[in-house]
């Protein structure tokens, strides 16, 4: 076991961790984080217009992510369709505040047409209401049981057992995503290339051997069944949680 490797029993119970911001030390990075958080809160309080979001996405994003936002597996471009709205806003704010690295995305959010919280709210609302990717490119299917065991034991407490993300929307959905992108992001986070991620999550992902990384990503890329219903607030203020289905099983390799 390497000096940075954690035993599985003590690994942090999360997987993508994009929903958490980084623990930071310098005044500059702290200011950047605060700026990002302010932008997120501003965007989420705005009235979003999905039609405006669709127009902005078509003009500025569809050339890479596809007209239906299903991504491009060969180029490592993620599917954004049906992703959590708050999470999408958070990522756009982080790109804008240099809290998340990507030359391509920094160029995108620097454009006048994309640079405002109102636009982020509009685009995120449009994307979150799209139909999800139903046939992501998956792995070889050889270690699905291992991937399921790791995810359900270590990650489901944050991402839910169907990988849909949390109900607040800041913890992302990990299902309906291409295998190669999931592997790419695990590696990116584990090597400290994602500044908007909690340090404990970085250490957890760094503790995953290569075969476990592949196994978890493959398991997630094969989730096909419907997600559980979400808790719905009733007029009397009580929650009606209809999500009593069994966790979804990944599709078998073909």
Features:
two-stranded antiparallel sheet; mainly alpha; disordered N terminus; Cytochrome Bc1 Complex, Chain D, domain 2; 2 domains; single chain; 2 strands; 254 residues
The largest β sheet comes out as: 2 strands, antiparallel
Helix content: 40-55%
Give the mean pLDDT. 82
CATH architecture of the largest domain: Orthogonal Bundle
**Beta-sheet strand percentage?**
under 5%
Tally of individual domains? 2
CATH superfamily of the largest domain: Cytochrome c-like domain
CATH class of the largest domain: Mainly Alpha
What is the global morphology? globular
Number of helical segments? 11
CATH fold title of the largest domain? Cytochrome Bc1 Complex, Chain D, domain 2
- Helix and strand pattern: HHHHHHHHHHHEE
Terminal Cα span: 35 Å
Strand count: 2
Radius of gyration: 18 Å
Low-confidence stretches: 1-6, 9-26, 237-248
Tell me the strand order in the biggest sheet: 1-2
Secondary-structure-derived class = mainly alpha
């Amino acid at each position: 076991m390497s000096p940075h490797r954690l035993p599985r029993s003590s690994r942090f119970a999360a997987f993508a961790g994009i929903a958490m911001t980084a623990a930071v030390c310098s005044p500059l990075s702290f200011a950047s984080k605060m700026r990002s958080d302010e932008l997120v809160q501003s965007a989420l309080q705005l009235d979003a217009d999905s039609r405006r979001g669709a127009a902005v996405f078509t003009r500025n994003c569809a050339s890479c992510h596809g007209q239906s936002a299903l991504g491009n597996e060969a180029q490592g471009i993620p599917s954004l369709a049906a992703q959590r709205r708050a999470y999408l806003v958070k990522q756009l704010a982080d790109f804008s505040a240099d809290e998340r690295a990507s030359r391509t995305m920094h160029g995108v959010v620097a454009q006048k047409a994309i640079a405002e919280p109102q636009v982020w709210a509009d685009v995120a609302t449009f994307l979150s209401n799209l139909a999800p990717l139903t046939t992501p490119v998956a792995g070889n299917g050889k270690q699905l049981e291992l991937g399921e065991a790791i995810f359900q034991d270590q990650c489901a407490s944050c991402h839910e057992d169907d990988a849909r993300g949390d109900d607040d929307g800041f913890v992302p959905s990990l299902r309906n995503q291409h295998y190669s992108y999931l592997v790419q992001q695990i590696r990116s986070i584990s090597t400290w290339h994602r500044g908007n991620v909690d340090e404990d999550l970085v250490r957890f992902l760094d503790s995953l051997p290569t075969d476990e990384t592949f196994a978890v990503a493959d398991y997630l890329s094969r989730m096909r069944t419907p997600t559980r219903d979400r808790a719905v607030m009733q007029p009397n203020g009580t929650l009606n949680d209809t999500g009593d289905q069994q966790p979804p099983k990944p599709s078998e390799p073909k």
